[in-house]
Amino acid sequence: MDIINFIRNTANNYQAVFYLLTVLLFIIGLKLLTSPKTARRGNIVSAAGMLIAITITLFYHGIISYKLIIIGIVIGSIIGAISAYILDLRAIPQYVAILNGFGGAVSALVGVSAFLQKELPANVTPLHFYSAISVDVFIGTLTFWGSMMAFAKLQGLVTGRPVVIKGKNVINILILLISVLLGVLLVNDPYNIYYLIGILVAASLLAISLTIAIGGADMPVIIALFISYAGLSASAVGFIFLTYGLIMVGSLVGASGLILTRTMAKAMNRDFLGILLGNITPPEMSKIHSGEDIYAGRVKSSSPEEAVMILEAANRIAIVPGYGLAVAQAQGPVRDLMNELEKDGKEVYFAIHPVAGRMPGHMNVLLAEVDVPYDKLKTLEESNELLPDTDVAIVIGANDVVNPSARDNKETPIYGMPILDVDKSRSVIVIKRSLSPGFSGVPNPLFANDNTVMLFSDAKPALTDLVKEYRELKV
Amino acid sequence: MDPLITALILFVLAVIIGFEVITKVPPILHTPLVVASHAMAAIMVVSAIEASGSGKTLTAQILGFSALLLGTVNVVGGYLIADRMLSMFKGHKKK
Lengths: 475, 95
Description:
The complex is a heterodimer of chains A (475) and B (95). Chain A is of the alpha/beta class and 475 residues long. Chain A contains 19 helices and six strands. Chain A is 60% helix and 6% strand. In chain A, strands 3-2-1-4-5-6 form a six-stranded parallel sheet. Chain B has a domain at 28-86. Chain B contains four helices and no strands. The termini of chain B are far apart. The model of chain B has no long low-confidence stretch (mean pLDDT 88). Classes of the chains: A alpha/beta (475), B mainly alpha (95). At the A-B interface, α2, α3, α4, α5 and α9 of A face α1, α2, α3 and α4 of B.
């Protein structure tokens, strides 16, 4: 027993030091995540940091019963491990929405539990304790319901179209003010549970009002914003108990979320501040233009046989994948096409727009899954340097991100959005089912260009045909 | 120094470190970064452990237990998914 007591004392007396170690390992882990070569190791380093924090906490003095703790950890680990093993990587955005919802729930549950127990840690004044609980429960609940809404939208359970409520901004600000008022009341009278319930209700309403206005196309931004919320939740819990480790990790993660949100906002031509205030999808985005005037008589339809001839003559080929590629499950055929072309001595690279896919970096993961080496995955900037010297660009299931209107038509809502300059390559093959516009509703003049041919088909059969035709050509 | 001030200083410093480190993560790794970030944020389980193990009332224990359960899913699921994705990123094929 002496040894156990010794460990317990050490763990409790030096808890802050161990947390510091955790934070350091997290930072090193993130640092290693800056290169695909070291990223896997970074993730393990970070997990080791987590293990230290959890182990130390298990020796916490106040713990009187280990039964619930062990049951919780075992069941949670089993669910986590199985879900990680069976997950279809196309559904990563939904998975992230759930992780985020759980994170919000954890922070709200811990907050409510702290409120009920009313055991103030040393050095913490009631004013500090109850304000931190109010903020924590508010953010946690907001995150939980917001994530559940996002999950429902991603999964198609709720319409992906933005639902516009009149006077939305006024309503949101009103809810926010009421929440602050309830928080003040709670701090003054911490024995009245109705104030806490009021905060729970207000945060839930705000979450729904904020997320219902967001269109399906804007999900990458929301997913990025989520990380900030997750970080803030962790920090808020840290402020309740003055656990410095939690505060630091929370702000570290919060910063990462803000950076990704800014990147996504830039890539999608959205106002960063507007996003923070919940004004994400501009209303004009829901209008659809037919584009008859642009396309009439200028669009050239082609066949796989013809497309293969164009590829045969090329030296450097860019493949531009959009989420349509993943929806059609055509990652395998696209890799086969890459292999065929490379066997022939041609240079092939993938030009990947930051918002290709449904969350930051999604397309890279989907291509890595089918063994496309990461040095072939080029970013927007790298691709735009290569594209003018590229013989053929094959656009698959992408639309808005290759629309030249974003560069030169001030009238369109996508004006100013950074795009892949596919139209600057010598010729373009677009694989698409029809001329229907992308999420923005803007017709795409690229399809009517002289050097563009259209291959009207689903991505998977089209690519399978291309591979087959190419092999036949080479026999 | 007031511990609240210390907490605020740490908060701000960690934000700065976060900005510095994470701006250097390349877009190709953004999805694993997102998942790993969620696993890290789930460090909140430490408070859930305390709440479920030291709860004086049954309600507090149940709340703590639920938080611990969900938090553990995030930690384990998050790190494992990130690992699964990162294991797929390979360089040049050597033949």
